[in-house]
Amino acid sequence: MVEHAGTRQPRLPGARGSRQRGSILLVSLVALLLLFIGALFTLRGVLTDTALTDAFNERQKATIASDLALQWTVSQIEATYQASQGHVLEISAAGKPWFLSTAQPQVPDATYWSTCETNPSSTYVCAPVTLANSAPQKAWVFVQPTGRSDPSACGDTQSLTAWYYDIWVHTVDPRTQTGVDTESLFKLCVAQ
Fold first, then answer.
1. What is the distance between the alpha carbons of residues 72 and 76, in angstroms, rounded to a whole number?
2. Are 132 and 119 in contact (CB under 8 A)?
3. How would you write the chain as a 3-class SS string?
4. What HEC string does 138-192 produce?
5. I want to staple 126 with a disulfide (CB 3.0 to 4.6 A). Which of 38, 99, 116, 183 is the partner?
6. With 0-12 CB in 10 A as exposed, 13-18 as middle and 19+ as buried, what is 96?
7. Based on the number of CB atoms within 10 Å of its own CB, is 135 exposed (0-12), middle (13-18) or buried (19 or more)?
8. The pTM is what?
């Protein structure tokens, strides 16, 4: 066979060419695997963020429902006070389903609320609140005296004394079981 200078012989596929293609395939598979793992971690982060956002939103909705229940309770206190011609709640609210005549020695816990909801008694008092706009949350409230009063907190112009009451609100969304318990201090100025 005569070879001419400057002419090349065609390459036959051999071991060296198949090794190059095998290493390119291996590198491609590793790159795809890394991309897949990265996508999984990104998806996991997105799902976690979504779950946290949903929980935060449900908590916010329950807090808003608690605020609505608190407004309802304040209106009940004010109406009771007006109807009694200015007596303290210990006198004017006796027998109301939302008024507990003696102060709880501790913060109401889940047992208190579940007992109150299902079997109210003289020591487990709470009233269900109907929330506006057909809210799915359910709320229960009770008011109790703190035992504190202050003759100078309402101003001296009308001889008023401030009587303080705790308002407890328990709100639950039955769909998600997200709940909020809040306590507020209410000041009632009563003529002495």
1. 6
2. no
3. CCCCCCCCCCCCCCHHHHHHHHHHHHHHHHHHHHHHHHHHHHHHHHHHHHHHHHHHHHHHHHHHHHHHHHHHHHHHHHHHHHHCCCCCHHHHCCCCCCECCCCCCCCCCHHHHHHHHHCCCCCCCCEEECCHHHCCCEEEEEEEEEEEEECCCCCCCCCEEEEEEEEEEEEEECCCCEEEEEEEEEEEEEEC
4. EEEEEEEEEEEEECCCCCCCCCEEEEEEEEEEEEEECCCCEEEEEEEEEEEEEEC
5. 116
6. middle
7. middle
8. 0.69
Domain locations in the chain? 22-191
Residue type, 170: H
| Of 142, 138, 132, 141, the residue nearest 177 (C-alpha) | 138
Give the least confident one: 27-41, 50-64, 66-80, 152-166: 50-64
Cα–Cα distance for residue pair 129/67, rounded to 1 Å: 11
Average pLDDT over residues 119-126: 83
Task: Provide the b/e sequence for 16-49 (b: ≥16 CB within 10 Å).
Answer: eeeeeeeeeeeeeeeeeeeeeeeeeeeeeeeeee
User: Could you give the CA distance from residue 111 to residue 12 in angstroms, rounded to a whole number?
Assistant: 84
